[in-house]
C-alpha cells in the first residue's frame, strides 16, 4: 500500500557560497591541468625518455605537445587566480581558524570512540592536505614556466630533472587526494555533505 504522506526533504548542511565557487572551479581547473600536463609529459616522458612510459590518449588533452601546452598555460590562469582569491577569502573571513584541521581533530584521532567523529577528523586532515599540494604544483610549475626569472626555484629542487619529477608528482597526489577526499566526505557526512559543496 502506498502512503500519501510527503517524504520530508533532508536538510543539506550550509556551505558558504565562496567555498562552493572555489571548489567547483578548482575541480574544473585541476581536470584541465592534469590532462593537459599528461599530454606534455607524453612528448618526452620524464621516466625513460621518448621510449618511456606513455599515458593513453583518453587521459590526455590537447592532441599533441603544442596543444597540451596551450591548454596547460591557459588553464594555469584559472587554477592560480582561483587559488589566489580563495587564499584572500580564507584570510578575510578568518575561515583558516576553523575550516582546516586543528588540535581537536588530532585529539579525536587518539581519544574518540565515536566512529563518525573519527571519520570527520580524517576528512579534515585529508582535505587540508590539498592546500600544500596545490601550492607545490604552483611553485614547481612557475619554476618550469619562467626559469630565467625564478632560477632559485630550479635550484631549490636541485636541477631541472628533479623539478620535472616533483611537478609531475602533483598528478598522483591529486588523483589519490580526490579518491580519499570523496570517500571520507561520504563517510563523514553522507551524500548530503558532498552535494552541499555544489548546490
Ligand atoms: C595540480 C596542477 C598541475 C598539474 C597536475 C600539472 C601537471 C603537469 C604535468 C604532468 C606536466 C608534464 C611534466 C613533464 O613531463 O615534464 C606539466 C608540465 C608543466 N607545467 Fe604543470 N601541472 C599543474 C599546475 C601547473 C601550474 C600552476 C603551472 C604554472 C604556474 C604549470 C606549469 C607547467 C609547465 C611550465 C610545464 C612544462 C611545459 C613544457 O615543458 O612544455 N603547471 N604539468
TrEMBL record:
Subcellular location: Cell membrane
Source superkingdom: Bacteria
Residues passing through the membrane, by range: 21-41, 71-92, 125-145, 165-184
UniProtKB keywords: Cell membrane, Membrane, Transmembrane, Transmembrane helix
Membrane topology: Multi-pass membrane protein
UniProt entry tagged with the keyword Cell membrane: yes
Predominant localisation class: membrane
Domain Cytochrome b561 bacterial/Ni-hydrogenase: 17-185
A Pfam short name: Ni_hydr_CYTB
Protein name: Cytochrome b/b6 domain-containing protein
Organism: Nodularia spumigena UHCC 0060
Amino acid at each position: 500500500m502506498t502512503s500519501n504522506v510527503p517524504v520530508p526533504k533532508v536538510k543539506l548542511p550550509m556551505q558558504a557560497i565562496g567555498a562552493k565557487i572555489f571548489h567547483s572551479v578548482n575541480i574544473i581547473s585541476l581536470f584541465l591541468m592534469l590532462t593537459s600536463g599528461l599530454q606534455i609529459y607524453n612528448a618526452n616522458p620524464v621516466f625513460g625518455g621518448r621510449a618511456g612510459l606513455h599515458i593513453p590518449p583518453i587521459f590526455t588533452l590537447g592532441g599533441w605537445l603544442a596543444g597540451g601546452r596551450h591548454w596547460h598555460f591557459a588553464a594555469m590562469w584559472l587554477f592560480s587566480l582561483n587559488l589566489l582569491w580563495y587564499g584572500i577569502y580564507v584570510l578575510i573571513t578568518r575561515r583558516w581558524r576553523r575550516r582546516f584541521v586543528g588540535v581537536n581533530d588530532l585529539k579525536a584521532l587518539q581519544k574518540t570512540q565515536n566512529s563518525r567523529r573519527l571519520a570527520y577528523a580524517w576528512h579534515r586532515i585529508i582535505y587540508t592536505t590539498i592546500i600544500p599540494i596545490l601550492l607545490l604544483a604552483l611553485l614547481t610549475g612557475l619554476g618550469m614556466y619562467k626559469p630565467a626569472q625564478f632560477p632559485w626555484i630550479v635550484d631549490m629542487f636541485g636541477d631541472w630533472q628533479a623539478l620535472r619529477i616533483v611537478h609531475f608528482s602533483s598528478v598522483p597526489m591529486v588523483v589519490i587526494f580526490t579518491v580519499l577526499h570523496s570517500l571520507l566526505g561520504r563517510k563523514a557526512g553522507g551524500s548530503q555533505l558532498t552535494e552541499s559543496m555544489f548546490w
